[in-house]
């Protein structure tokens, strides 16, 4: 039996073969990718859990629509619209959601540029080619962003418990004076 949890996930791109090459995903084909993504989701998320899904569930000619995939995913899904999300059955897809968890403010949005201008908390997103983990790491303390693209989260949903832990660490490490001290080159590396 599962204890109820809140998760975030995005950028599954189920059914989209080109995402394997484009994002350097470690799969032989789209069937293998779909199977692993669905299994990771359903092994992580219980039926009573809440999942904020931040868009791009599928894409491409061979992809099914949103409704096809949602029926195969566990949990109560709050769907936030991505770039490629279309549905015959869902009349309204959210652009973003603001939530307060653990005393912190989070904006859950597909594209971080779509967050409200006056928002001063952490932005959880999966856009702007966020599979480029050098430019868009899982946690960016300076920008106060969290990249939850599948490539950044080991191809599974991430719990808010995990996110709170990472944010606490990021905020504490960056506030330490010893962390900000000048780095000295070890003797072995000097000429």
Automatic annotation (TrEMBL):
CDD domains: MPP_AQ1575. Keywords: Hydrolase. Gene3D superfamilies: 3.60.21.10. This is Phosphohydrolase. It comes from Methanosarcina mazei. GO terms for molecular function: hydrolase activity.
């Amino acid at each position: 039996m599962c204890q109820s949890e809140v998760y975030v996930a995005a950028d599954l791109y189920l059914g989209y073969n080109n995402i394997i090459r484009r994002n350097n995903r470690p799969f032989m084909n789209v069937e293998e990718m779909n199977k692993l993504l669905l299994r990771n989701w359903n092994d992580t998320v219980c039926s009573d859990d809440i999942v904020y899904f931040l868009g791009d569930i599928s894409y491409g000619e061979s992809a099914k629509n949103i409704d096809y995939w949602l029926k195969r995913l566990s949990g109560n899904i709050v769907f936030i619209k991505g770039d490629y999300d279309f549905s015959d059955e869902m009349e309204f897809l959210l652009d973003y959601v603001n939530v307060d968890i653990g005393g912190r403010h989070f904006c859950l949005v597909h594209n971080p540029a779509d967050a409200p201008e006056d928002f001063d908390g952490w932005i959880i997103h999966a856009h702007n080619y966020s599979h480029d983990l050098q430019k868009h790491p899982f946690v960016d303390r300076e920008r106060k962003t969290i990249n939850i693209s599948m490539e950044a989260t080991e191809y599974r949903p991430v719990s808010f418990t995990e996110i709170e832990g990472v944010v606490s660490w990021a905020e504490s490490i960056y506030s330490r004076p010893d962390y900000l001290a000048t780095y000295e080159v070890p003797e072995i590396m000097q000429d």
